[in-house]
């Protein structure tokens, strides 16, 4: 397992991060603790959660993911682990989360951080992320920016000033973004530099063989700002494992359990692209999952690849991808497929 430094922080994270959004819905607390135990034996020191998890977000399950982690975390050597979580932003119908008023403002940040600390049973959070922007941006499969959808937003400077106070209080160590745009990352960095406020060290965005949009805008921003990518959905909601090629109605899978979450992968050319990548994996004697994860972790801008699994066998296969090194020939074949089916699931 390799370890990468996150931006200008002193956090060194494993190149594989354990995602936990299924804990509390698809995974029991026993499942979760088994996964966590196995992950750390394999050198993983980085865990990612969110206050709204598990998915799908519901009032009766909200917070269970962090609570499951907390029961495990209290038994661990805390300073050997890097724990990340997120605050939910506005624009989602979460009436059960702080009354539905989820602006990234002082009151919400303060309560969200305190609630996460309590559920996680820890004194501090290593990386605290804004799950999606407080302002309007197209996210989760939306691609076209529409100025008519802009909403009132908490100024970035005001958000950063609150986080500066929370960091000073010792409740969080570093700040990150998620589902952000090139403009958004640039503004967060610029304002932090201008006002002497905390600089974000990461952005967590979707990145996989079916969605390489990051390469066309954010990659340049990251190079010049020293912000790193935490890549989520490296398996494209499970599509890149190849399991949906013949049957998109498999039982107990994310696409069947949470149809609203998988719409970005039900677009034209997704299945054709997946078939091509599955055949490519066979050509090089790899599993489709190993090919997909190895590709993501090979990118220069990726600091950690977030994997999630509902079974221990899936987790083992995904973690084994750290042993897969792709060569120039495989990359050429990947790019040929990408040219034929460019970003079918942005």
TrEMBL record:
Protein name in the entry: Protein tas
UniProt cross-references to Pfam families, sorted A to Z: Aldo_ket_red
InterPro entries, per database record: AKR, AKR_Detox_Biosynth, NAD(P)_OxRdtase_dom_sf, NADP_OxRdtase_dom
Matching NCBIfam families: PRK10625.1
Record keyword Transcription present: no
Family label: Belongs to the aldo/keto reductase family. Aldo/keto reductase 2 subfamily.
Keyword entries, A-Z: NADP, Oxidoreductase
Organism: Anabaena cylindrica (strain ATCC 27899 / PCC 7122)
GO MF term set: oxidoreductase activity
Domain NADP-dependent oxidoreductase stretches: 15-337
Taxonomy, superkingdom: Bacteria
